[in-house]
Amino acid sequence: xxxxxxxxxxxxxxxxxxxxxxxxxxxxxxxxxxxxxxxxxxxxxxxxxxxxxxxxxxxxxxxxxxxxxxxxxxxxxxxxxxxxxxxxxxxxxxxxxxxxxxxxxxxxxxxxxxxxxxxxxxxxxxxxxxxxxxxxxxxxxxxxxxxxxxxxxxxxxxxxxxxxxxxxxxxxxxxxxxxxxxxxxxxxxxxxxxxxxxxxxxxxxxxxxxxxxxxxxxxxxxxxxxxxxxxxxxxxxxxxxxxxxxxxxxxxxxxxxxxxxxxxxxxxxxxxxxxxxxxxxxxxxxxxxxxxxxxxxxxxxxxxxxxxxxxxxxxxxxxxxxxxxxxxxxxxxxxxxxxxxxxxxxxxxxxxxxxxxxxxxxxxxxxxxxxxxxxxxx
Length: 378
What we know:
With 378 residues, this protein is mainly β. The protein is 7% helix and 40% strand. It has a single domain, classed as 6 Propeller (Neuraminidase), CATH 2.120.10. The strands form 6 sheets. Strands 1-2-24-23-22 form a 5-stranded antiparallel β-sheet, with no helix packed on it. Strands 6-7-8-9 form a 4-stranded antiparallel β-sheet, with no helix packed on it. A hairpin with a 4-residue loop joins strand 23 and strand 24. The termini are far apart.
């Protein structure tokens, strides 16, 4: 009895002390990279599963929390109360309030865009809406896109938002765990969507007028793309999507192209069984890069700042399962080198953004989620 009690006490103590051990690797900790040393600064904490981050022109941040809250965060890390005017969300599984983006004309119109899992008849689906930021609320919020049909699954919402240089809005959609429906292009499963900021459809979208396709669709055959960014020089959309067991992909989705899920993949099913016909099929695109085993990528940014001059032009990708930041060196549209950073921090990195100050900001996906800033160590 005494021995059992002692063992239980030791185990209990180890669980209680784990957060402290983990937290010592947060603010002020220094990590090595090939070209620089990186200091991690804790900007803010106390966020519940933060998902998306956007910088306001005055330096404040908008941050989404998956349970359904949108918060303003000051430059020194103070959290506001939840903002009003946010839509109701389906906060189950991987669903909830997801990405946030500012309108390209935010200085004039104050419009903020949110992606979220929208509840409704049949279950839930990815939706995108916009409202005007006034003080501590979004005013006149309206939905501009809805994934159809909804489904009762609670996974693979996709949901990253990216505005192209021409003002068009790209939306990534997961296949909602229904891989057998991805190659049915009459519905929204595993696609990239391209719309105008008001939700109307651009006249040059690739599938307009084609039977069996939806006119808002840009590309098809994706699994669960949770990263999206516009290349700062070419203006092209880049995405990163989750594979199954292996096969996470980086793609540059082209107009009207099919990226193959679940017909081709560089991974296998979680059961270990082969996916589709293998890795290649005529008429289906190859990824720019892939990971096997999976790192579970989420959040990406092209680095254009001056704080880390050796990283200028590199692609930064967060990893959930891998609990790290991945730096990828590019040669035009080829990835020529990968470096894995911050592995000792042991945090699920949900989003990656470059701040107005040129530093790199990360969101950690946990019930005590954080905004972290990466600075060069002196």
